[in-house]
Design goal:
- The protein is globular, with a radius of gyration of 20 Å.
- By secondary structure, the chain is mainly beta.
- Helix content is about 0%, strand content about 35%.
- The strands form 8 sheets. The chain has a 5-stranded antiparallel β-sheet, with no helix packed on it. Strands 4-3-2-31 form a 4-stranded antiparallel β-sheet, with no helix packed on it.
- The longest helix has 4 residues.
């Protein structure tokens, strides 16, 4: 393992942008929920299009933010972000891939969630150094930005290829975890993070088990131990084999990679309390075949690990799901990619988190999404449902290569305390991409009144292959 700690005595002020607004005093308002950028109690939808062309620069990348409303994400109220947006640091350049990763937290605790955007292709001290941009929430939505501090520019590449936010060091202020490649694969930037202040230190670490060429490829987080302090789920590839590696880390411990708990191997995950016992549970998606990853399965699989006071609850066997599991719609077939996207949220308002699973390879990569429901005894397949673009009420039509379900998110866009289902298909229309949103009801997502929109609706160029929906709210 290699661990380096950055002390606060090395702090250097970040340069504020001309567009930066004056902020209320820290802790002047209750912290906003993630992705509620205008503080109206509804979750907004952030959509990454890292392949978007900006001012003629191919794959510079863009992010559309569509604000929530009583009827769901409302594409007429939106913010378009690129590195050429006034007040944004940097400049849109070829292969920057702005919008490859997204995360959110109320970093300056002013009552408005802020947006973190990863740009792993940004050139800095070397090629593909990577950078992360913070865009600040406000009563009118996102406005003003600054660059997130990075400690070890010569020791990593693709900084910002994955992101998570939360109070990981348990000091009362939100922090940011950043995945990258190279000797330093995971960085913790300590909060509080404000619009104009200096940084507050942090740490960076790597470990021999992780392939440095892939680094940390996905991050998620949640209150797994029930103590109010979020833990981080880290995904990468094993050094030497490139097989998936997944672990649970407590980043309050400075050399946290010495205290990893192994989890079922996969490439994406989501965290929330499925059985309402006060401990967040972890759903891990592995969409690869066993020929590509020994931890995979025919058509892909999802494994649910239940949380407990010490992290994973070792007294409960993990629940393994495939499309051959009794009650799960469909059948496991080679290339289905069941588990390509994962999200947990309470769709029906019963207090138990439900699970949305993307199957982006289904039917020649037309794609599908499966919804399963939580209960006091855990996740159940009773009443499981599946959605495609051919489902009545879902706009469009299933076509080979759409990859409907590449990313899914369960978040409350309407403010009714139920999680709506949003789904992306980055391959729609030959790589333009598109997003769908289905309203939540007491009996599950409904296709009645569902909405769909693509890049041109929110101002993103369709030149090249923007891959609209490559990233969604995490």
């Amino acid at each position: 393992m290699r661990t380096r700690i950055a002390s606060t005595v090395l702090a250097a002020a970040l340069t504020p942008l001309a567009l930066t607004l004056s902020a209320p005093a820290a802790h002047a308002a209750p912290a906003a929920a993630p992705y509620d950028f205008n503080g109206d109690g509804r979750t907004d939808l952030a959509i990454g299009a890292p392949g978007a062309t900006v001012a003629g620069q191919a794959k510079a990348g863009a992010v559309s933010v569509v604000y929530g409303s009583s009827s769901g994400p409302k594409s007429s109220t939106r913010t378009l972000l690129t590195q050429n947006t006034a007040g944004m640091p940097g400049t849109a350049e070829v292969d920057d891939a702005f919008g490859s990763a997204l995360a959110s937290a109320d970093l300056n605790t002013d009552g408005y969630a802020d947006l973190l955007v990863g740009t792993p292709g940004e050139d800095g001290s070397d090629s593909n150094d990577g950078t992360v941009t913070i865009v600040w929430g406000s009563p009118t939505g996102l406005s003003g930005a600054r660059t997130l501090f990075s400690f070890f520019s010569t020791d990593y590449d693709r900084y910002g290829q994955t992101l998570a936010a939360g109070d990981f060091d348990n000091d009362g202020a939100p922090d940011v975890a950043v995945g990258s490649t190279g000797p330093i694969t995971l960085s913790l930037v300590a909060g509080p993070i404000t619009k104009t202040g200096a940084h507050n230190g942090g740490s960076g670490s790597g470990k021999d088990r992780w392939s440095t060429s892939y680094g940390i490829t996905h991050l998620s987080s949640g209150n797994v131990t029930g103590d109010g302090h979020p833990r981080v789920i880290m995904h990468g590839r094993s050094a030497g084999t490139d097989d998936a590696v997944t672990a649970l880390a407590d980043m309050e411990i400075s050399n946290y990679t010495d205290w990893l708990q192994n989890l079922p191997a996969g490439y994406v995950s989501a965290v929330a309390d499925i059985d309402r016992d006060g401990y967040a549970d972890i759903a891990v998606g592995n969409d690869r075949e066993t020929s590509a990853d020994p931890a995979g399965a025919l058509g892909g699989k999802v494994t649910v690990v239940y949380g407990g006071p010490d992290g994973r609850d070792t007294t409960r066997a993990p629940l393994v799901l495939t499309q051959d599991t009794a009650g799960v719609p469909g059948a496991a077939e080679k290339g289905d990619r069941f588990g390509s996207g994962i999200s947990l949220g309470d769709i029906n308002g019963d207090g138990c988190a439900d699970l949305a699973i993307g199957t982006a390879g289904e039917n020649s990569s037309a794609g599908a999404v499966t919804v399963l429901y939580g209960s006091a005894s855990g996740l159940t397949t009773k009443g499981a449902t599946s959605y495609t673009q051919n489902t009545a009420g879902v706009l469009g039509a299933s076509e080979a290569g759409d990859r409907f379900g590449e990313r899914v998110t369960l978040t409350d866009h309407t403010g009714d305390h139920r999680a709506d289902l949003s789904v992306s298909a980055p391959g729609e229309n030959a790589g333009d991409g598109a997003v769908w949103s289905l309203r939540a009801t007491a009996t599950g997502p409904t296709t009645s009144g569902s909405t769909s929109f693509g890049p041109s609706t929110t101002g993103v160029s369709t030149a090249g292959t923007p891959g609209y929906g490559t990233a969604l709210n995490s």
